[in-house]
Amino acid sequence: VHSQAFHGLLGQVPGIRVFYPVQPKSVTECYRKALAHRGVSIVMEPRRMYELETAGLPRAVAPPMAQIITLGDCVLDAAAAARELRQEKITCNVIPVEDLRSAVSYFADVPCVLVDTSPTADTVSIIACRLFQSGCSAVRFVVPPWEPLPAAAALEAGWYPSKEGIKNAIYEMLGKKTSGAVSPLEAADVGFRGPF
Asked: At 105, is the secondary structure helix, strand, or coil?
């Protein structure tokens, strides 16, 4: 289902509340809301979150030059992109979507990059509709290709939205030259022998 990204499917089912916490401080809050919900609640935990220590999200600025709205473990890549962009004097706010049914706070007149782990971009498409209704016309999607998710870790890393892809989308929206970096799939090692 959606190349193993179940949040898009589950988030569309009436009565089901889907939580996708990615910040340590919000995990308990998501579980509290899930337990208080009278219907079915699902708390999804990105597997990448278990394997690394995170510095958290970059401090929000008002108003930013761009904003990145994302969910799941893509928040890690968005935060890394925002940190690198700040070194280039491009301020970005990273807005994690941790409750798929709740509204997201954003600046309506600031360019937005929407990052999702599902090629159909179900979750961020709903947010995009809200952005367009509020007057935001500068929106870019960074989603995986419309192809099956590879099984090998090296290919999987190239399939998911990347820090470079997020940065390039922001460069394009701000009229700046892109980094020219290629995706890990395009730069794959010719000696790659497969997943087993």
From this structure: coil
- Residues 18, 100: contact at Cβ < 8 Å? yes
Tens digits of residue pLDDT in 138-185: 888 888 877 777 777 777 777 788 899 999 999 998 988 776 655 544
What is the phi/psi pair of residue 113, to 5°?
Answer: -110, 125
Which tokens is 12 given? 């569309």
Cis status of the peptide bond prior to 64, with omega within 30 of 0: no
Which of 187, 163, 189 is closest to 83 using CA atoms?
A: 163
Q: CB within 8 A of 65, min separation 6: which ones? A: 90, 91, 92, 110, 111, 174
Q: How far apart are CA 25 and CA 60, in angstroms?
A: 16
pTM of full prediction above 0.90: no
Q: Which residues are CB-neighbours of 123 under 8 A, at least 6 positions away? A: 7, 8, 11, 71, 97, 100, 116
Residue 129 CB coordination number (10 Å): 10
